[in-house]
Design goal:
The protein is an alpha+beta fold and about 375 residues long. It contains 16 helices and 13 strands.
């Protein structure tokens, strides 16, 4: 296996996308062979891998050691945005006349309850803190309009700020039903957040170590930061400019300039929103002409099949759990055999469990035969 442990793999990849809970388990398994129970243990028992809302208002699973950097930079930026937007929305929807004060009161109420009562589900928080059950009407003039509770927005604000964390999961490995927990209770020995510049520099160094070389556009997109913040962080870590095969300019760490031998032929089946699939904004060099087949209109990548560093297709499951590779191009005999073997291995690992994803690729959806 490329990595000897879940913790080593997580540090090597910087973080896992955790928008869909199953993606963490599948991504870790693809690189370590870990079982679902082992991934759960890292997340909820050892807490060596921790879920945190951060870049682009997305949930990731980070190595615990990287959290102070995230809290001080990307997560803090999202928290400020979410708090301001929520303050505007509760006024807009007639919940209060003083949005900032309402948000402050709601956040304080959640934290007070968690400190006294311990880990609590969203549903229970709505029961014990009535102001969290205030409703907002979304798109009332549209057929898809709905009235929603304000509770998830309050928890999003708190989670981005690093004040609360997604604790033990009350659902299975494919669902997200966290018991919200005060950060000081979930990680009692966690250090304070880094200063913003220091945090961005630490994240930049980790990203370059994982994904470099990358372009400025890649980094701005991935960090969800401003160009000014990215430029400063590149300088802080002493990043070096290098030429890319595309003719553009990329950046690497100064100690990562050695030539790298091409690896032996390899195949992989990666889940939706895998960190490698989503590592760069400019993807032509590994995605080729397959963007429309493998990504949705918002740039979210579905489950992918990889051969020697390129995305060459996707994968799906039959109703009985069998994993099926869906090629996007002519694979040839060697790639077909290798990916079929990976599909058989993943089928056995899933053991009849079917993973549904809202990010399934158009390619894989179209490959399902009508009954």
């Amino acid at each position: 296996m490329p990595y000897g442990s879940i913790e080593v793999a997580t540090e090597a990849m910087t973080c896992w996308h955790a928008t869909e809970p199953a993606s963490v388990h599948l991504a870790v398994h693809a690189r370590t062979g870990a079982t679902r129970e082992q991934v759960d243990a890292a997340l909820y028992d050892d807490r060596s891998v921790v879920k945190q809302l951060a870049m682009r208002r997305t949930v990731f699973a980070f190595p615990r050691s990287l959290l102070p950097a995230v809290w001080g930079s990307a997560a803090s930026r999202v928290a400020v945005q979410q708090r301001s937007q929520l303050a505007r929305d509760v006024v807009k929807h007639g919940i209060t006349d003083d949005g900032p004060a309402w948000v402050e009161q709601a956040c304080d109420a959640v934290l007070s309850h968690l400190h006294v009562s311990g880990p609590t589900s969203t549903a229970r928080l709505r029961e014990v803190i009535p102001m969290l059950d205030a409703r907002m009407s979304l798109s009332p003039d549209k057929t898809w309009g709905a009235e929603v509770s304000v509770a998830p927005r309050v928890l999003t604000t708190l989670a981005a700020s690093g004040a609360v964390m997604r604790g033990e999961n009350e659902g299975g490995w494919k669902t997200s039903r966290p018991r919200w927990t005060a950060t000081r209770d979930w990680l009692p020995d966690a250090p304070d957040a880094m200063a913003e510049a220091e945090g961005y520099a630490a994240l930049m160094a980790s990203w370059l170590r994982t994904f470099g070389p990358g372009t400025e556009a890649d980094i701005v997109w991935w960090l969800g930061a401003t160009k000014a913040a990215v430029t400063r962080a590149l300088g802080d870590v002493g990043a070096v400019e290098v030429g890319l095969e595309s003719g553009g300019t990329g950046f690497v760490l100064a100690d990562d300039m050695d030539d790298v031998e091409a690896p032996e032929a390899w195949a992989a089946l990666l889940p939706a929103l895998d960190p490698t699939t989503m590592g760069w904004k400019e993807r032509d060099w590994y995605l080729g002409p397959h963007a429309a087949a493998l990504f949705d209109r918002n740039g979210n990548g579905g489950p992918t099949a990889w051969w020697c560093g390129r995305i060459v297709g996707g994968w799906r499951q039959d109703d009985d759990g069998t994993v099926v590779v869906v090629p996007a191009e002519d694979l040839g005999a060697e790639a077909t055999a290798a990916l079929t073997h990976k599909a058989d291995e993943l089928t056995a690992w899933l053991d009849g469990d079917v993973v549904r994803t809202i990010y399934q690729s158009p390619l894989a959806r179209d490959a399902v035969k009508p009954r």
